[in-house]
Predict the 3D structure of the following.
Amino acid sequence: MNEIIKPSVEKVIVTENLTKKFGHFTAVDHISFEVKRGEIFGFLGANGAGKTTAMRMLCGLSKPTSGNGTVAGFDILKQSEMVKKNIGYMSQKFSLYDDLKVWENIELFGGIYGMTDSEIKLKTDELMAKLNFENERNSLVKSLPLGFKQKLAFSVSIFHTPKVVFLDEPTGGVDPITRRKFWELIYEAAASGITVFVTTHYMDEAEYCNRVSIMVDGRIEALDSPANLKEQYNARNMDGVFQQLARKAKRIDA
Amino acid sequence: MNIIHNNNIAVSCAGISKHYKKVQALKNVSFEVSKGEIFGIIGPDGAGKTSLFRILTTLILADNGTATVNGFDVVKNYKNIRECVGYMPGKFSLYQDLTVEENLEFFATVFNTSIKENYDLIKDIYVQIEPFKTRRAGKLSGGMKQKLALSCALIHKPAVLFLDEPTTGVDPVSRKEFWGMLKNLKKQGITILVSTPYMDEASLCDRIGLIQNGSFLTIDTPEEIIAGFGQRLWAAHSKNMNKLLTDLRSNADVKSSFAFGDAVHITLNEDYKTEQLRHELEVKGHTGISIRTIKPGIEDCFMELSKSEKY
Amino acid sequence: MILLLMPVIQIILFGFAMSTEVKNTKVVVLANQADEVTRQLIERIDASQYFEIAVIAHNSGDVDNAFRDGTAKLAIIFENGFSKKLTHEGKAHIQLIADATDPNAATSFVFYAGNIINSYQQELMPVQSAAGLIQPEVKMLYNPQMISAYNFVPGVLGMIMLLICAMMTSIAIVREKEMGTMEILLVSPMKPIYTMLSKIAPYFVLSVINFATIMLLSVYVLHVPVAGSFISLVLVSLLYIFVSLALGLLISTITSTQLAAMFISGMGLMLPVMLLSGMIFPIENMPGILRFISNFVPARWYIDAVKTIMIKGLSITEVGTDVAVLSVMAVLLVIASVKKFKVRLE
């Protein structure tokens, strides 16, 4: 599947003792992990465990208090601009501009990431064909059904073929069928060599990941493949694993 | 006032429809909820859950149909309803710049009661947030806010409690806790209508309605809905799950196939044997194949039922 | 769309309609003998673009009345036997009395009137060799020291109260809608009208405090005395606060976002108050359509009432029209907002 990987970019995300403190509060506490190219990496944790903060640091949006990390081969401290150029981002809340047309959204984001017009045009046609979107090309995004929007938002986030795409709860509130179709897109992206870094509250989705990390109180409490985690914690499914780990949280949730 | 035919009915809807401009939010919805029941309305965003709740809590008017809550008509007797229901809207609806305690006091006053009067009802929930009672509501974490909002919705001991997506965006541990609290409230005789996009919460309800595109796919107990699945469901595994899904999709004898956690859930044409399938998958190069029959979950039912809907 | 139209409207308003220039100012004339010279001079004044003779007074009481009810801003009073004195004694007095509640305008009136008189006199000179000197005597009514605060204090009152009441009330209520707390309050047994009143109350108190502060500042720091009855002033102000609150309530019922509420109260209220209330630009100078519109701006009536009571020192009975108009507005606004106010979300 991943024959064309160059050894130098094998590790797309590397962090070493990444830490973020807000005053006395340590939101992210010395986390170290590696994510390989083409991997689907599940980033789980209870509300307030530090997921969002960690993700913001990896996207170059927030400076770590200590520790370091590289994303797509670039230092998140010193080369945050380069990091931003080489990643894609999608969340449930922000996806696309509602009052722009489908193709306008694509062109806008393509343009933001510095793609050439001819490249954008070519890839737009490809994308429209792949998603069966030809008829919706000129529709306003807000007129699309939620499932369509979600797919489009994801496709736009990987339109510039980033090395990593960060997905922040991408499937919240989506119906089960659309949710599964969405994961099929994720698989496809991963198969094409894009690393997928995803947070979710759906524990069955954690099973779709190659590896899963579970954050508790700012630290990574467990990191392994779903199968190994289930074995290790003697749980029937990932929900069982999560419940065991997250209940250990001492940080007062307030 | 309407004659109440059945004293045991807490909520009833008959032929409720609602549209906004071009969107038909609810299409001819009818259902009944008995007193003391936990009734789950389960469906994705945009299915019409919030509109339904707003009609029942007298916040908006339906285009067609009638509905009663606790025996009161939602249009004519809206004032009576407002005295006997508790409501927790989807958006966090507390005063962010008031403290936990002030919020609770405020809502107690609004409902002409005091914290003391119904303290035993909210005690179990409130003790968990009491240590932070001087903190501003805006500074609470998701789980805590949710508990505070629930306390505020309960402060006047409502007969019917409406919870609109109380667990959306909340982590699995807090969600489990929250459902534990609902079970306790049920014991105190409160009827609870709760909406959620999470299918796995269905089994915690007494009865559920699966809603999609403004109408119910089915309404029944979770057990009955599962029993009504009507076909055998298989869970298939192989070493290469991604390829497995593609191969299953291309097999004409596989009626449906959906990734489900670490397995693919499939239904097969009637005379197609699993041995045949196993053989065909082996031919395609799969290893570590396992195909075993499993009990369907609500999510399987939802997908099966919504397939017949225009997608 | 609105953003595109805004500059166009403003430019047109400022360019054509709004001017501080004196134009067609109403004048009351008192001349005991209608002789040739007075008649000519009166005609000159009436013919100029600046003035328009509104009242021919027969005695000083008429002049007083004209000022009091605002029918005239400038009085030209010829002394007894004006023409005779001019020819025989070589000089005659003419008195110019200006309503100086707006000191800038008053200065202009006097200046233009003086110019007309001067030029008339120069024409007169060569024809009648014996022509004497017309000596204008200027009097600034109500505001002899020409303190500009006399003009802006009523304006500030009119604006601040509207801002606090209408803008803040509407924003506070709409905020609850946005936060979702309105949903809970509506689903509670509390009567929606109490919810509204409880939202209005703090801003009512705030405006009363503001009123008191402005009063204290203007009397003790700016030395603008309250010439008339303080009680009357308070009563009129309370009425105005009431109108503003009702306006805020109405805005809150028709908007659903704080931004929209802000925009409507900002653009829909602030601008008219600034431009059409007579605070900066005299209403008399506006073209008919704007003068008509200004009738619907509550601040116009309030500012007029405050000027009359506070600066001119007249009693509340002299501002009957203002009070009546404000009362009607209050009633209509309350009816409208109660009608518009919904017991439901939509």
Notes: Residues 149-340 of chain C form one domain. Residues 130 and 181 of chain C are 86 Å apart (CA to CA). The longest strand of chain C covers residues 91-99.
